[in-house]
Specification:
It contains 3 helices and 11 strands, in the order αβββαββββββββα. It is an alpha+beta fold.
């Protein structure tokens, strides 16, 4: 016998090919009570379908095609189902066992976006947790931590990166992806997570709503709540506080000082009129809402 692979390498290959059965192209070959590892394959134009798989007990391969090669146009999973049926019959009376482990294998918590050791930020990837446990031959596991996920503060009003003037109650932290080598948007292929990329260069935009003198109108019923206005296109319009004129007009002097008695009489008359008022109907009590 001649060994062609180290035990640790064989173990890692088996671990990878188990994924083919559990969540890859070989799912239909999965057995009920026995672990399976394997690899599917095809030739050009689907003229041949191949599957090679193994368990802790046996190895088996299957090919499906025509003696005179031609494209297989219909169901392309028969070979997997046939492989499974044969192997389940062979393993019917065998006790269940796992693939043997070996020394020199370590497990590490990896970020699937960077391939480096995961951080807590990787758990909050906007597309879902990017943390996964992987096996490595001892000494080959990553040593550096993920540098792809980064946290930035975003203004929820403008949807842009927050600046120093954004109120704390409208600022929240958000996880972005920052690749060491940004992808070329004009190169054709676009990553599935491109929408979560941190803007950089000319695309890096900060909040354009809040500034050093930004003032919003307030709701008369809830003065503490500020209502931003928007133009016809939905863009927020910053409102600046009114400027103080250089030569403000002084308040007019009250020239009716001698008429204080008349004012008092008028107020008394008003009180009397208000006190003696009798409503004609219930409708007189109606107060229109603003």
């Amino acid at each position: 016998q001649r060994r062609v692979l180290k035990e640790s390498t064989a173990y890692l290959l088996t671990d990878m090919m188990e994924d083919v059965i559990t969540k890859g192209t070989g799912r239909l070959a999965r057995m009920k009570n026995m672990p399976v590892a394997g690899k599917t394959g095809t030739t050009s134009d689907d003229k041949d379908l191949i599957f090679a798989g193994y368990t802790p007990y046996y190895v088996a391969g299957i090919w499906m095609g025509h003696d005179t090669p031609k494209r297989l146009r219909y169901d392309k999973s028969y070979h997997l189902l046939l492989w499974k049926a044969i192997m389940e019959d062979i393993h019917a009376d065998l006790p269940v066992k796992n693939f043997p482990s070996t020394d020199g294998i370590v497990q590490a918590r990896i970020c699937t976006k960077s391939g480096k050791l995961a951080t807590t930020t990787c758990e909050h990837d906007p597309g879902g947790s990017a943390v996964q446990y992987e096996y490595f031959a001892k000494g080959t596991q990553p040593k550096e931590y993920c540098d792809v996920h980064t946290i930035k503060k975003v203004c929820t009003i403008s949807g842009l990166l927050a600046n120093e003037y954004c109120p704390e109650d409208v600022v929240k932290e958000k996880v972005f992806i920052k690749r060491p080598i940004p992808y070329d948007a004009d190169g054709g292929a676009v990553p599935a997570d491109a929408q979560y990329e941190l803007p950089s260069g000319e695309e890096e935009k900060y909040c354009d709503v809040h500034g050093p003198h930004t003032v919003f109108p307030t709701d008369p019923f809830y003065p503490e709540y500020q209502i931003p206005e928007a133009d016809d296109e939905g863009n927020i319009i910053p409102i600046l506080p009114p400027s103080i004129p250089d030569n403000p007009t002084p308040p007019q002097e009250n020239r009716n000082r001698d008429n204080s008695n008349n004012d008092s009489s008028s107020r008394d008359s008003s009180r009397t009129s208000s006190t003696n008022y009798t409503p004609d109907s219930v409708d007189d009590f109606y107060i229109p809402l603003p």
